[in-house]
Design brief:
The complex is a heterodimer. Chain A is mainly beta. Chain A is built from no helices and 11 strands. In chain A, strands 2, 4, 5, 6, 9, 10 and 11 form a 7-stranded mixed sheet that branches. In chain A, strands 1-3-8-7 form a 4-stranded antiparallel sheet, with no helix packed on it. Helices cover about 0% and strands about 55% of the residues of chain B. In chain B, the strands form 2 sheets. In chain B, strands 2, 4, 5, 9, 10 and 11 form a 6-stranded mixed sheet that branches. Chain B has a 5-stranded antiparallel sheet with strand order 1-3-8-7-6, with no helix packed on it. Classes of the chains: A mainly beta, B mainly beta.
Chain lengths: ~110, ~110
Amino acid sequence: EAQVTQNPRYLITVTGKKLTVTCSQNMNHEYMSWYRQDPGLGLRQIYYSMNVEVTDKGDVPEGYKVSRKEKRNFPLILESPSPNQTSLYFCASRTRGALGYTFGSGTRLTVV
Amino acid sequence: GQQLNQSPQSMFIQEGEDVSMNCTSSSIFNTWLWYKQDPGEGPVLLIALYKAGELTSNGRLTAQFGITRKDSFLNISASIPSDVGIYFCAGQESSGTYKYIFGTGTRLKVLA
């Protein structure tokens, strides 16, 4: 089944403890992206990647890192999480010419 | 970063009623997309609109790409309980980035 898989689905952590949210897609898509969803603010792009080793900042990149060493994987790294990073995170992918992203099921992160 | 203005923010309707929601922007977009997010899941693409003035249907859903390229609306006819969820519009920028900007979402609740 064609899909975008994120792990974990739920995570509670403490301020300052580094964490990684993994994302993998099995559709050979070139583009991958991370979004965060907050009430009243919709989906905001954190980082995106147009291909292996090509990444760029989205609208809210502060406090996050990403890497794209393989086409299928696009992990999101929080080096020192803070409470304002408590949010629902989505990974998404698409082909170069496609209209719209295919989204994962989300990771709900709580930083205390 | 830019966000799209989506209205209404939320709505309660009776089963069988028609629903209308819209999305506006100060920028011109090449493409408009409408997504639906079920509770606990990632957004799923419903309709894609390619050119100004285009009217497209998908079952009970109808969406239009505004003639000014700065707005779009989505209508749902004869709503049913499974229509509950959050509806997002997304516009693809006409600049070279081809980036997608998401709306703030319309939360729909259907009363049986």
